[in-house]
Specification:
Number of helices: 6
Strand content: 15-25%
Strand order of the largest sheet: 1-2
Radius of gyration: 23 Å
Low-confidence stretches: none
Helix content: 55-70%
Mean pLDDT: 87
Shape: elongated
Order of helices and strands: HEEHEEHEHEEHEH
Largest sheet: 2 strands, antiparallel
Length: about 180
């Protein structure tokens, strides 16, 4: 069946995409307890703002995909959703430095443990310690994407089925050989 013949299912899938993106954004902003500490996995908001849905062609079918606009953000989105396994290559230093600056993380002297000036060198030193810790310990995922898709799919299951039935019925009625 051509895409124009599946207009009802396409409308419902567009609504599904909008709702899934909205729920994923809300999940990202939600404060959580991770490893016993309150945490919010949002710093600059770039990931949240880059979430979107799109349709891909798979043969003759349209498939709705909830994703990010930029490839760079897509890799980060996977880390935040699924986490990062321990004992792996540390994340890039530049990303941790940017995170420290955005979040306003206070910087400590490694030898004394006292807070020090947020100079470029001190921030890079702290970022390096953080990145090696992340490489060793990993990061726990928050499953914001998975939860959003599951919740939205549960809500949209009957709507998707009904739209598909309407489209199939319209196709059958349009076929000149079936009365």
């Amino acid at each position: 069946m051509a895409t124009e013949e599946l207009k009802n299912i396409r409308i419902v899938l567009e609504q599904f995409g909008l709702e899934a993106v909205q729920k994923a954004r809300e999940n990202l902003e939600r404060e959580r307890i991770i490893r016993g500490k309150k945490a919010q996995r949002i710093a600059s908001g770039k990931l949240r703002d880059d979430l979107r849905y799109t349709f891909w062609k798979r043969g003759k079918k349209d498939v709705v995909i909830v994703t990010t606009g930029e490839k760079e953000t897509r890799n980060y989105a996977d880390v935040i959703d699924k986490g990062r396994r321990p004992n792996r290559k540390p994340p890039p230093l530049e990303a941790i430095v940017a995170w420290i600056k955005i979040k306003g993380i206070p910087v400590r002297d490694m030898a004394t443990g006292r807070f020090v000036e947020r100079s470029k060198e001190n921030i890079e030193r702290a970022a390096n310690a953080i990145r090696w810790s992340v490489g060793k310990k990993g990061i726990e995922g928050i499953h914001y994407f998975e939860e959003a898709i599951t919740a939205t799919l549960n809500e949209f299951d009957p709507k998707i089925i009904n739209a598909a039935l309407v489209d199939i019925e319209a196709r059958l009625k349009a076929d000149k050989y079936i009365k």
